[in-house]
Each structure stands twice: as structure tokens, then as C-alpha cells.
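Backbone-to-sequence.
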């Protein structure tokens, strides 16, 4: 069967790559064309049997159409500034879908873009699956109508979504959260601290992980705060031997971080392709809100979440966001397992205070790790991506050809 997958950011690339593993396992002759990133491309390259056997041009059958870094934006103001490019991407995607006529379009989160594609694919008789539900439980609940109208099957990944979507009358499948597999199967889990240090030419010193986000606006907002925090913490005698490692986001370069780095401050370093290892070997983590925060839970590393955006985006967001917490882990248990510092509270002094508590207050740390165990249990066991892929293939195998 022919699959067309659309992932618009780093987390979608991760989940898309795991889903592709499952699709190839269930449907060895799968032809997969996708918008995504390096992780999805690596899976495709390893499974591109059609090209390998026939010498044909992979563009005819599948492969990466466009990298998510060319379109990922966040927030109200950023969408306004880059609206023209986003509309062009939507137009290009529609044209490509019609040209290749897949059996199914699989949409991964990224609702601003993907809802437009869902409507288009539906109207052209192509089956639509939505994987990683758009966060309608947080804002823009009116999109539920579009889910019912244009999506053939919704695949959810959080336990708290079960009651929500059931109450809204949306048909869904829940097979657990794919991030559990992504973390448990990560090379970072098996790697020793000594290997991590040696491979990255680091000193054998305690690590504080700092994750500024994957999108450029997130990085620009968080980097000044994170580097100021690192300087203040390093200036304290008991922490002068610590190193502060910034996880360079996929599809970003050192130029995205260098305006806030000082060569003389060698205790602050940016490492690319090492996000999970940095988290895994850290004493504590400062994490921009998003998937990385849930990864930090699964790696069992104490954390504080920071969230800071453009002022206009924040003002608009305050009026449309209707959830109590911004972090997925906290939403899972409906209470604060770890602190969230939002906008003005997201400053170097508040982060320093919290990180010190994570390291120095054993009872506080242990309570957080106990909450982590509860979150992990709620997310379900292993095999989520494989199970979802099997469900998708089964649905396609037992339904008629695409609508005409």
C-alpha cells in the first residue's frame, strides 16, 4: 500500500520514524512518501527496497518530500510573519498528494497545516488517519468538528484523551504512548556515562541539561534565560565544577545558539545529536515545554519546565488556552509533578532556585521521581508504535478502495 505521512516538527519526526518501522514490519511492500525529518529519512533509506531492487528513482515511489525545518513555526506572531511560506507549503503538499495518489494520508500533530490537508484529502477520496491528536483539549475545541468530518480514524497517545474524545463522540484508537519505546530503546539507555563523556570530549563533571526547544523562536526566547542561569549557578562555589550542556535541536545549527555563547565560558556547551544522552546523564534538567519534557520524565531525571515566547503570542495564548498545565507529564496525572515557570517567571533566578532544590532537597527530588513512576504507568507499556501501525494496515486491508 501507498502511505503519505506528514510530520511538521522534531517530535513528529520521532513519532513518524517509529510508525514507519511498524508499517514496514506489517507491510513489507509499503511505499512511503513523507514530509518529515532526518529520523524518518533514515528509516526510509533502510527500507527502500523498491529503489534498491529496480534502480528506479525513489522520488517516484516515496521518500522525503520536504524537511520540517522549512516550515515549522510556533505562536500567533510567527504564523503572521511566515504565512505566505506556509500557504505555499500547503499548496505544494496538495499537488504532490494528487500526483502520487496514496491509499492513506497519515497526519502527525501539526494541526494548522494538517487540518488543511485532511479536508483536501477527504474531498479527493483519500482515506485520512490522524496520529498524535491535535491538542483540541487545550485550545480551539471547534476543530473537533473537522476531526469528525475529515478524519477516518484518530489515533491518540495520552490516557487523559480517552475520556475527552469519548465524551466528544470522536472515534479513536488508543494503544499507549510511542515515546515509551523511543526512550526504552534509545542507545542512551545502554550507554555508560564514561562512554558519553569520552565520545563528546567532556570533562568528568556533573551535568545540568538545558533544552531550549526545537524551533528557532523557542531557541531565541530561551537561550538568554538558560545561559544567564548557567552563569549564576556556575558562580556558586559548590557548583563551579558543573558543566551545562545545551541539547542542539535537530535541523538547527550552532549559528542558532552562538549569539548567546561566550567562548571563555567553556562550562557551557552545545552538543548536537545528543539530546537523549544529555538528559540521561544529567543531575537535573531545564526543559522548554514540549515532548522533551516527557522524555525527561521517562529518563527519570528531575526537571523544571520553562516556557517563554513572544509577548504578543503569550497574550493571545492566555485567552485561548484552557488547560491547567502546559506539560504533558503534569497533564497525565492532573497535578504538578514538576514546576512550570511561564513567561515572566521563566527567568534565571527562578530556574536557579528550582534546580538547586532538585539537587539539594532529597525529599523533594524523591517525590518528583515517585510521580514520574505514576506517569510512566499511565502511558502504558511498550510496543505502541508497532501496535498503531498494525491497526492502520488492518483498517486499510479491510476497507474498500479510496473513494472516487
Amino acid at each position: 500500500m501507498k502511505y503519505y505521512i506528514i510530520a511538521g516538527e522534531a517530535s513528529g519526526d520521532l513519532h513518524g520514524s517509529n510508525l514507519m518501522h511498524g508499517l514496514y514490519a506489517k507491510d513489507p511492500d509499503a511505499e512511503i512518501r513523507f514530509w518529515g525529518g532526518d529520523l524518518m529519512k533514515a528509516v526510509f533509506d533502510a527500507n527502500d527496497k523498491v529503489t534498491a531492487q529496480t534502480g528506479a528513482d525513489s522520488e517516484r515511489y516515496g521518500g522525503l518530500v520536504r524537511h520540517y525545518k522549512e516550515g515549522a513555526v510556533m505562536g500567533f506572531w510567527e504564523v503572521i510573519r511566515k504565512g505566505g511560506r506556509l500557504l505555499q507549503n500547503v499548496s505544494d503538499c496538495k499537488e504532490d498528494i494528487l500526483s502520487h495518489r496514496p491509499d492513506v494520508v497519515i497526519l502527525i500533530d501539526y494541526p494548522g497545516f494538517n487540518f488543511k490537508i485532511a479536508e483536501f484529502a477527504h474531498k479527493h477520496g483519500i482515506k485520512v488517519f490522524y496520529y498524535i491528536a491535535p491538542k483540541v483539549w487545550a485550545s480551539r475545541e471547534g476543530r473537533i468538528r473537522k476531526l469528525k468530518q475529515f478524519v477516518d480514524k484518530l489515533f491518540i497517545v495520552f490516557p487523559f484523551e480517552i475520556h475527552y474524545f469519548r465524551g466528544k463522540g470522536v472515534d479513536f484508537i488508543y494503544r499507549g504512548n510511542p515515546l515509551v519505546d523511543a526512550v526504552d530503546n534509545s542507545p542512551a539507555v545502554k550507554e555508560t556515562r564514561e562512554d558519553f563523556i569520552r565520545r563528546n570530549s567532556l570533562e568528568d563533571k556533573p551535568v545540568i541539561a538545558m533544552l531550549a526547544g526545537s524551533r528557532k523562536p523557542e531557541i531565541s526566547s530561551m537561550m538568554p534565560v538558560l545561559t544567564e542561569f548557567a552563569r549564576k549557578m556556575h558562580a556558586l562555589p559548590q557548583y563551579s565544577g558543573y558543566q551545562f550542556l545545551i541539547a542542539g535541536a535537530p535541523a538547527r545549527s550552532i549559528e542558532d545558539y552562538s549569539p548567546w555563547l561566550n567562548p571563555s565560558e567553556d562550562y557551557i556547551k552545545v552538543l548536537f545529536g545528543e539530546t537523549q544522552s544529555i538528559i540521561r546523564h544529567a543531575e537535573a534538567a531545564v526543559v522548554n515545554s514540549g515532548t522533551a519534557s516527557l522524555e525527561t520524565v521517562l529518563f527519570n531525571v528531575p526537571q523544571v519546565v520553562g516556557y517563554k515566547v513572544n509577548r504578543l503570542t503569550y497574550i493571545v495564548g492566555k485567552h485561548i488556552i484552557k488547560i491547567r498545565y502546559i506539560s504533558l507529564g503534569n497533564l497525565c496525572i492532573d497535578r504538578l509533578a514538576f514546576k512550570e515557570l511561564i513567561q515572566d517567571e521563566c527567568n534565571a533566578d527562578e530556574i536557579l532556585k528550582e534546580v538547586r532544590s532538585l539537587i539539594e532537597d532529597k525529599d523533594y527530588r524523591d517525590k518528583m521521581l515517585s510521580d514520574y513512576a505514576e506517569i510512566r504507568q499511565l502511558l502504558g507499556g511498550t510496543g505502541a508504535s508497532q501496535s498503531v501501525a498494525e491497526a492502520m494496515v488492518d483498517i486499510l486491508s479491510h476497507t474498500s478502495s479510496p473513494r472516487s
